[in-house]
Design a protein that fits this description.
Blueprint: H1 16-23, E1 31-35, E2 38-39, E3 43-44, H2 50-62, E4 66-70, H3 77-80, E5 89-94, E6 101-102, E7 107-116, E8 137-140, H4 144-151, E9 158-161, H5 172-182, E10 187-191, H6 192-199, E11 205-209, E12 220-227, H7 232-244, H8 246-256
Parallel strand pairs: 1-4, 1-5, 8-9, 8-10
Antiparallel strand pairs: 2-3, 5-12, 6-12, 7-10, 7-11, 7-12
Helix pairs in contact: 2-8
Length: about 270
Protein backbone atom coordinates (compact mmCIF):
# COMPACT_ATOMS: atom_id res chain seq x y z
CA UNK A 1 0.00 0.00 0.00
CA UNK A 2 0.95 3.57 -0.42
CA UNK A 3 0.46 3.47 3.33
CA UNK A 4 4.31 2.43 3.79
CA UNK A 5 7.40 3.26 1.73
CA UNK A 6 9.86 0.37 1.46
CA UNK A 7 13.10 2.08 2.51
CA UNK A 8 16.14 1.10 4.61
CA UNK A 9 18.11 4.21 5.53
CA UNK A 10 20.05 5.25 8.61
CA UNK A 11 18.04 7.52 10.97
CA UNK A 12 19.25 11.05 11.59
CA UNK A 13 21.00 11.74 14.86
CA UNK A 14 18.79 14.00 16.97
CA UNK A 15 21.20 14.63 19.85
CA UNK A 16 23.08 17.75 20.89
CA UNK A 17 23.65 20.54 18.40
CA UNK A 18 22.44 18.30 15.57
CA UNK A 19 18.92 18.43 16.97
CA UNK A 20 18.97 22.23 16.94
CA UNK A 21 20.11 22.23 13.34
CA UNK A 22 17.28 19.88 12.38
CA UNK A 23 14.73 22.08 14.14
CA UNK A 24 16.00 25.10 12.22
CA UNK A 25 14.92 23.53 8.93
CA UNK A 26 11.23 24.14 9.58
CA UNK A 27 9.69 27.12 7.83
CA UNK A 28 7.77 29.60 9.95
CA UNK A 29 6.26 31.39 6.95
CA UNK A 30 4.76 28.43 5.01
CA UNK A 31 3.16 25.08 5.74
CA UNK A 32 5.54 23.08 3.55
CA UNK A 33 4.19 19.67 2.55
CA UNK A 34 6.14 16.73 1.08
CA UNK A 35 3.88 14.84 -1.32
CA UNK A 36 3.61 12.48 -4.29
CA UNK A 37 2.22 14.44 -7.26
CA UNK A 38 0.22 11.47 -8.61
CA UNK A 39 -0.99 9.48 -5.63
CA UNK A 40 -4.74 9.86 -6.18
CA UNK A 41 -6.98 9.93 -4.28
CA UNK A 42 -4.56 10.99 -1.55
CA UNK A 43 -2.30 13.65 -3.02
CA UNK A 44 -2.26 15.11 -6.53
CA UNK A 45 -0.41 17.97 -8.15
CA UNK A 46 -3.71 19.68 -8.97
CA UNK A 47 -4.38 19.54 -5.20
CA UNK A 48 -7.67 17.64 -5.41
CA UNK A 49 -6.64 14.72 -3.16
CA UNK A 50 -7.98 14.38 0.36
CA UNK A 51 -4.49 14.89 1.80
CA UNK A 52 -4.36 18.17 -0.14
CA UNK A 53 -7.63 19.21 1.48
CA UNK A 54 -6.28 18.28 4.90
CA UNK A 55 -3.13 20.29 4.19
CA UNK A 56 -5.27 23.31 3.37
CA UNK A 57 -7.06 22.91 6.70
CA UNK A 58 -3.85 22.63 8.69
CA UNK A 59 -2.43 25.64 6.87
CA UNK A 60 -5.53 27.60 7.80
CA UNK A 61 -5.31 26.55 11.45
CA UNK A 62 -1.64 27.56 11.50
CA UNK A 63 -2.29 30.80 9.65
CA UNK A 64 0.23 29.82 6.97
CA UNK A 65 0.02 29.39 3.17
CA UNK A 66 0.50 25.83 1.90
CA UNK A 67 3.36 24.97 -0.44
CA UNK A 68 4.52 21.62 -1.83
CA UNK A 69 7.66 19.73 -2.65
CA UNK A 70 6.63 17.03 -5.13
CA UNK A 71 8.47 13.72 -5.42
CA UNK A 72 7.24 10.21 -6.36
CA UNK A 73 6.67 7.76 -3.50
CA UNK A 74 9.31 5.06 -3.19
CA UNK A 75 13.05 4.91 -2.68
CA UNK A 76 14.45 8.34 -1.96
CA UNK A 77 11.17 10.05 -1.11
CA UNK A 78 12.01 10.96 2.50
CA UNK A 79 15.68 11.64 1.71
CA UNK A 80 14.92 14.03 -1.15
CA UNK A 81 12.05 15.85 0.54
CA UNK A 82 11.72 15.87 4.34
CA UNK A 83 15.30 15.05 5.32
CA UNK A 84 16.69 17.44 2.71
CA UNK A 85 14.83 20.29 4.41
CA UNK A 86 12.75 21.07 1.34
CA UNK A 87 9.46 20.55 3.21
CA UNK A 88 8.36 19.98 6.79
CA UNK A 89 5.58 17.39 6.93
CA UNK A 90 4.34 14.26 5.17
CA UNK A 91 0.55 14.33 5.51
CA UNK A 92 -0.09 10.57 5.63
CA UNK A 93 2.43 8.18 7.18
CA UNK A 94 1.95 4.79 8.84
CA UNK A 95 2.54 4.83 12.58
CA UNK A 96 5.81 3.28 13.70
CA UNK A 97 8.03 3.91 10.67
CA UNK A 98 11.53 4.85 11.87
CA UNK A 99 12.42 7.08 8.92
CA UNK A 100 10.35 9.89 10.35
CA UNK A 101 9.06 11.06 13.69
CA UNK A 102 5.35 10.32 13.87
CA UNK A 103 2.77 12.71 15.20
CA UNK A 104 -0.21 11.28 17.02
CA UNK A 105 -2.38 9.38 14.57
CA UNK A 106 -5.25 11.35 13.10
CA UNK A 107 -7.17 8.44 11.62
CA UNK A 108 -7.24 4.65 11.50
CA UNK A 109 -8.33 2.81 8.38
CA UNK A 110 -8.49 -0.74 7.11
CA UNK A 111 -8.02 -2.99 4.12
CA UNK A 112 -11.18 -4.26 2.50
CA UNK A 113 -12.70 -6.10 -0.44
CA UNK A 114 -14.05 -4.29 -3.50
CA UNK A 115 -16.80 -6.31 -5.17
CA UNK A 116 -19.73 -5.73 -7.48
CA UNK A 117 -22.81 -4.62 -5.58
CA UNK A 118 -25.20 -7.56 -5.28
CA UNK A 119 -22.69 -9.90 -6.89
CA UNK A 120 -21.78 -13.41 -5.67
CA UNK A 121 -18.99 -12.09 -3.42
CA UNK A 122 -20.86 -9.09 -2.02
CA UNK A 123 -21.28 -10.78 1.37
CA UNK A 124 -17.63 -11.75 1.83
CA UNK A 125 -16.05 -10.06 4.84
CA UNK A 126 -13.00 -12.21 5.59
CA UNK A 127 -10.11 -13.52 3.50
CA UNK A 128 -10.64 -17.14 4.55
CA UNK A 129 -14.18 -17.25 3.14
CA UNK A 130 -14.44 -20.33 0.85
CA UNK A 131 -16.40 -18.21 -1.64
CA UNK A 132 -13.11 -16.59 -2.69
CA UNK A 133 -11.62 -19.86 -3.93
CA UNK A 134 -11.17 -20.40 -7.66
CA UNK A 135 -12.05 -16.80 -8.48
CA UNK A 136 -9.78 -14.13 -9.99
CA UNK A 137 -8.94 -11.67 -7.24
CA UNK A 138 -6.75 -8.60 -7.49
CA UNK A 139 -4.32 -7.54 -4.78
CA UNK A 140 -1.29 -5.29 -4.48
CA UNK A 141 1.75 -7.58 -4.31
CA UNK A 142 3.58 -7.28 -1.01
CA UNK A 143 0.64 -5.67 0.80
CA UNK A 144 -0.46 -7.19 4.15
CA UNK A 145 -3.55 -9.03 2.83
CA UNK A 146 -1.51 -10.71 0.07
CA UNK A 147 0.29 -12.79 2.72
CA UNK A 148 -2.95 -13.92 4.37
CA UNK A 149 -4.52 -14.75 1.02
CA UNK A 150 -1.53 -16.89 0.03
CA UNK A 151 -1.76 -18.82 3.33
CA UNK A 152 -5.50 -19.28 2.70
CA UNK A 153 -4.73 -21.13 -0.52
CA UNK A 154 -5.73 -18.33 -2.88
CA UNK A 155 -2.31 -17.75 -4.46
CA UNK A 156 -3.10 -19.49 -7.76
CA UNK A 157 -6.06 -17.16 -8.38
CA UNK A 158 -4.42 -13.90 -7.35
CA UNK A 159 -3.67 -11.23 -9.91
CA UNK A 160 -1.04 -9.01 -8.34
CA UNK A 161 -0.18 -5.41 -9.09
CA UNK A 162 3.08 -3.72 -8.16
CA UNK A 163 3.42 -2.07 -4.74
CA UNK A 164 5.97 0.61 -5.57
CA UNK A 165 5.47 2.30 -8.95
CA UNK A 166 5.73 5.75 -10.45
CA UNK A 167 2.07 6.71 -10.29
CA UNK A 168 2.61 9.42 -12.87
CA UNK A 169 2.81 6.52 -15.32
CA UNK A 170 1.00 3.56 -13.70
CA UNK A 171 -2.16 3.28 -11.61
CA UNK A 172 -2.23 -0.23 -10.09
CA UNK A 173 -5.14 0.42 -7.71
CA UNK A 174 -7.24 2.00 -10.46
CA UNK A 175 -6.47 -0.93 -12.72
CA UNK A 176 -7.65 -3.48 -10.16
CA UNK A 177 -10.84 -1.55 -9.47
CA UNK A 178 -11.51 -1.33 -13.21
CA UNK A 179 -11.04 -5.10 -13.38
CA UNK A 180 -13.82 -5.59 -10.83
CA UNK A 181 -15.99 -3.07 -12.66
CA UNK A 182 -15.65 -4.76 -16.06
CA UNK A 183 -15.80 -8.31 -14.71
CA UNK A 184 -12.26 -9.48 -15.44
CA UNK A 185 -11.81 -9.70 -11.65
CA UNK A 186 -14.39 -10.92 -9.16
CA UNK A 187 -12.89 -8.86 -6.32
CA UNK A 188 -9.92 -6.73 -5.34
CA UNK A 189 -8.45 -6.51 -1.84
CA UNK A 190 -7.21 -2.96 -1.31
CA UNK A 191 -6.23 -0.35 1.27
CA UNK A 192 -9.35 1.58 2.26
CA UNK A 193 -8.06 5.14 1.74
CA UNK A 194 -7.02 4.22 -1.80
CA UNK A 195 -10.17 2.30 -2.74
CA UNK A 196 -12.98 3.97 -0.79
CA UNK A 197 -12.76 7.42 -2.40
CA UNK A 198 -12.56 5.89 -5.89
CA UNK A 199 -15.81 3.96 -5.59
CA UNK A 200 -17.90 6.07 -3.20
CA UNK A 201 -20.06 7.43 -6.03
CA UNK A 202 -20.21 4.18 -8.03
CA UNK A 203 -23.45 2.28 -7.28
CA UNK A 204 -22.13 -0.82 -9.03
CA UNK A 205 -19.22 -1.33 -6.62
CA UNK A 206 -18.94 -1.73 -2.86
CA UNK A 207 -16.13 -1.75 -0.30
CA UNK A 208 -16.39 -4.21 2.61
CA UNK A 209 -13.85 -3.57 5.39
CA UNK A 210 -11.96 -6.57 6.75
CA UNK A 211 -12.94 -6.09 10.39
CA UNK A 212 -13.03 -9.80 11.30
CA UNK A 213 -9.44 -10.76 10.53
CA UNK A 214 -7.54 -11.78 13.68
CA UNK A 215 -4.29 -13.09 12.27
CA UNK A 216 -1.06 -11.38 11.30
CA UNK A 217 -0.35 -9.13 9.53
CA UNK A 218 -3.18 -6.97 10.75
CA UNK A 219 -5.60 -5.31 8.35
CA UNK A 220 -5.88 -1.90 10.06
CA UNK A 221 -3.27 0.85 10.41
CA UNK A 222 -3.06 4.14 12.26
CA UNK A 223 -2.06 7.06 10.06
CA UNK A 224 0.02 9.93 11.35
CA UNK A 225 1.92 12.86 9.92
CA UNK A 226 5.66 12.48 9.51
CA UNK A 227 8.14 15.14 10.64
CA UNK A 228 11.92 15.15 10.99
CA UNK A 229 13.56 13.33 13.87
CA UNK A 230 14.25 15.75 16.70
CA UNK A 231 11.59 18.32 15.83
CA UNK A 232 9.69 17.87 19.07
CA UNK A 233 8.14 21.34 19.19
CA UNK A 234 6.79 21.00 15.66
CA UNK A 235 5.36 17.58 16.47
CA UNK A 236 3.67 18.94 19.60
CA UNK A 237 2.16 21.80 17.61
CA UNK A 238 0.68 19.39 15.06
CA UNK A 239 -0.53 17.07 17.81
CA UNK A 240 -2.36 19.99 19.40
CA UNK A 241 -4.07 20.80 16.10
CA UNK A 242 -5.06 17.16 15.61
CA UNK A 243 -6.56 17.02 19.09
CA UNK A 244 -8.48 20.29 18.76
CA UNK A 245 -9.76 19.68 15.23
CA UNK A 246 -10.33 15.92 15.14
CA UNK A 247 -14.02 16.29 14.29
CA UNK A 248 -13.22 18.45 11.25
CA UNK A 249 -10.49 16.03 10.15
CA UNK A 250 -12.93 13.12 10.40
CA UNK A 251 -15.50 15.03 8.38
CA UNK A 252 -13.00 15.73 5.59
CA UNK A 253 -12.01 12.07 5.46
CA UNK A 254 -15.60 10.82 5.45
CA UNK A 255 -16.58 13.25 2.70
CA UNK A 256 -13.68 11.88 0.65
CA UNK A 257 -14.92 8.32 1.13
CA UNK A 258 -12.14 7.10 3.43
CA UNK A 259 -13.38 4.20 5.62
CA UNK A 260 -12.63 5.07 9.26
CA UNK A 261 -12.39 2.45 12.00
CA UNK A 262 -11.71 2.56 15.72
CA UNK A 263 -8.12 2.39 16.97
CA UNK A 264 -8.28 -1.40 17.20
CA UNK A 265 -9.74 -1.99 13.74
CA UNK A 266 -12.87 -3.59 15.18
CA UNK A 267 -15.68 -1.18 14.36
CA UNK A 268 -16.46 1.04 11.41
CA UNK A 269 -16.98 4.63 12.55
CA UNK A 270 -20.01 6.34 11.06
Amino acid sequence: MRLTIALTLIALCAAGSGAAQVADLRSTTQFRVCADPANAPMSTKDETGFENRLADQFGEWLGLPVSYTWFPSGMGFITRTLRAGNCDVVMGYAQGDELVQNTNHYYTSVFGIVTRTGGPLAGVDRLTDPALRDRPIGVIAGSPPASIMALAGLAKDLQGAALVVDRRVLDPVGGLIQGVRDGTLDAAVLWGPLAGPRIKDDPDLQFTPLLKETGFPRMFYRITMGVRLGEQEWKRQLNSLIRRHQDQIDQTLREAGVPLVDDYGKELLE
